[in-house]
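Re-run with default settings, no changes from the original entry. Doing this only to confirm the output is reproducible before filing.
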Amino acid sequence: MSILRMSAVKAETGHRSHASIYNAIHDGLFTKPVQIGQRAVGWPSGEVQAINAARIAGKTESEIRELVQRLHVKRTELATI
Protein backbone atom coordinates (compact mmCIF):
# COMPACT_ATOMS: atom_id res chain seq x y z
CA MET A 1 0.00 0.00 0.00
CA SER A 2 1.24 3.46 -0.78
CA ILE A 3 0.29 6.93 0.40
CA LEU A 4 -1.03 9.25 -2.28
CA ARG A 5 -0.43 12.98 -2.05
CA MET A 6 -3.11 15.50 -3.03
CA SER A 7 -2.09 15.77 -6.70
CA ALA A 8 -2.26 11.99 -7.13
CA VAL A 9 -5.61 11.81 -5.33
CA LYS A 10 -7.03 14.49 -7.63
CA ALA A 11 -5.75 12.60 -10.67
CA GLU A 12 -7.16 9.27 -9.42
CA THR A 13 -10.58 10.61 -8.45
CA GLY A 14 -11.17 13.27 -11.07
CA HIS A 15 -11.58 16.00 -8.47
CA ARG A 16 -10.36 19.31 -9.83
CA SER A 17 -9.47 21.09 -6.62
CA HIS A 18 -8.31 20.62 -3.06
CA ALA A 19 -11.59 22.16 -1.92
CA SER A 20 -13.70 19.54 -3.69
CA ILE A 21 -11.85 16.75 -1.89
CA TYR A 22 -12.17 18.46 1.48
CA ASN A 23 -15.88 19.08 0.79
CA ALA A 24 -16.29 15.35 0.10
CA ILE A 25 -14.51 14.62 3.40
CA HIS A 26 -16.84 17.02 5.20
CA ASP A 27 -19.85 15.31 3.59
CA GLY A 28 -18.57 11.86 4.63
CA LEU A 29 -17.93 10.81 1.03
CA PHE A 30 -14.13 10.55 1.27
CA THR A 31 -11.71 9.43 3.95
CA LYS A 32 -9.76 11.87 6.07
CA PRO A 33 -6.09 12.31 5.21
CA VAL A 34 -3.29 10.83 7.28
CA GLN A 35 -0.40 12.92 8.54
CA ILE A 36 2.83 11.91 6.77
CA GLY A 37 4.99 14.81 7.85
CA GLN A 38 4.87 17.98 9.86
CA ARG A 39 3.07 19.80 7.05
CA ALA A 40 2.15 16.95 4.72
CA VAL A 41 -0.86 14.68 4.40
CA GLY A 42 -1.83 11.86 2.10
CA TRP A 43 -4.36 9.09 1.60
CA PRO A 44 -3.79 5.33 1.62
CA SER A 45 -4.03 4.19 -2.00
CA GLY A 46 -6.32 1.29 -1.06
CA GLU A 47 -8.88 3.67 0.39
CA VAL A 48 -8.87 5.84 -2.72
CA GLN A 49 -9.25 2.74 -4.89
CA ALA A 50 -12.13 1.41 -2.78
CA ILE A 51 -14.03 4.71 -3.01
CA ASN A 52 -13.42 4.90 -6.77
CA ALA A 53 -14.64 1.32 -7.21
CA ALA A 54 -17.81 2.12 -5.25
CA ARG A 55 -18.50 5.14 -7.46
CA ILE A 56 -17.88 3.11 -10.62
CA ALA A 57 -20.25 0.43 -9.32
CA GLY A 58 -22.96 3.07 -8.96
CA LYS A 59 -23.18 3.00 -5.19
CA THR A 60 -25.37 5.67 -3.60
CA GLU A 61 -23.96 8.45 -1.44
CA SER A 62 -25.38 6.65 1.58
CA GLU A 63 -23.52 3.46 0.64
CA ILE A 64 -20.31 5.40 0.04
CA ARG A 65 -20.65 7.05 3.49
CA GLU A 66 -20.93 3.58 5.02
CA LEU A 67 -17.84 2.49 3.08
CA VAL A 68 -15.89 5.54 4.32
CA GLN A 69 -16.87 4.72 7.90
CA ARG A 70 -15.70 1.11 7.45
CA LEU A 71 -12.42 2.30 5.95
CA HIS A 72 -11.81 4.58 8.94
CA VAL A 73 -12.55 1.71 11.35
CA LYS A 74 -10.18 -0.57 9.41
CA ARG A 75 -7.48 2.12 9.52
CA THR A 76 -7.86 2.35 13.31
CA GLU A 77 -7.71 -1.43 13.70
CA LEU A 78 -4.52 -1.62 11.64
CA ALA A 79 -2.93 1.03 13.84
CA THR A 80 -3.35 -1.15 16.92
CA ILE A 81 -1.39 -4.07 15.48
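Residues 6 and 36 are 12 Å apart (CA to CA). The two ends are 16 Å apart (CA to CA).
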